[in-house]
Amino acid sequence: MDYFYQHPDQFYLFAFDHLYHPAAEPNAGHRILAKWEKEGRVTSIITQNIDGLHQKAGNEHVIEFHGTMKTATCPNCQTQYSADEMVLRKSKMPDFYVCDKCQTGHPQERYIKPDVVLFGDTGEWFTEAGFQTILGQIEQADCVLALGSSLKVTPFSHFPEYRGAGVPLIIINIGKTRYDFLNDTYVVRESIGESLIQIDNFLER
Questions:
Q1: Which long-range contacts link 89-94 to residues 24+ away (Cβ below 8 Å)?
Q2: Which of the residues 31, 85, 95, 173 could staple to 81 if both were Cys, CB 3.0 to 4.6 A apart?
């Protein structure tokens, strides 16, 4: 957060080069999760990703816990801009990151911030209501999948602890996690796509 407000132009330069990839397409794992949602096997996705690929694959019930790079918002007037709009603004004006739809005493109060959760930041789901929604979904689940996460970043890493007694936790991740040896936990150290393809083939039998 500090760097964004001190160097918004450099922050956007980094973000557009490294965090925003509008041409990216969902992989096999994304597509299978979308298929399972349509079949009623998956009720919700709670993701740390900011790329929007779950929605692009067809998932409708997605909680983007760390936000998204697809939009940016003025903290003063709450005007929301698409990432494409911000790219266009950057090509046309030097202070593209300053909202011109409202006025305040200091331009910094109108810096249009990408809707990702930065260190020192809070997001839509970092609220009491947000946590209640997420934990409620996990507590009601009859199976929890943890895909491609080290489960080290808090508070996200604590979510599997709220599954019900005896509810299986399936971890698909190349690296180790602190949950690997808990009861009712099953670990697959392979790629997400290949693993979900095999599980889907089994479910189709």
A1: 90/12, 90/16
A2: 85
Cα of 86 vs its chain's centroid, Å: 20
| Per-residue pLDDT tens over the stretch 3-56 | 999 999 999 999 999 999 999 999 999 999 999 999 999 999 999 999 999 999
CA distances, 164 to each of 27, 40, 137 (Å): 30, 20, 11
How far is residue 119 from each of residues 19, 66, 133, measured CA to CA in Å?
15, 10, 23
Backbone angles phi, psi at 113, to 5 degrees: -100, 130
Q: pTM score > 0.85 for this model?
A: yes
Quote the tokens at residue 179: 């949950």
The single residue of 18, 61, 66, 106 carrying the catalytic annotation is 66
Please give the C-alpha separations between residue 190 and each of 96, 157, 204, in angstroms, as whole numbers.
43, 20, 21
Catalytic, 54? Answer no
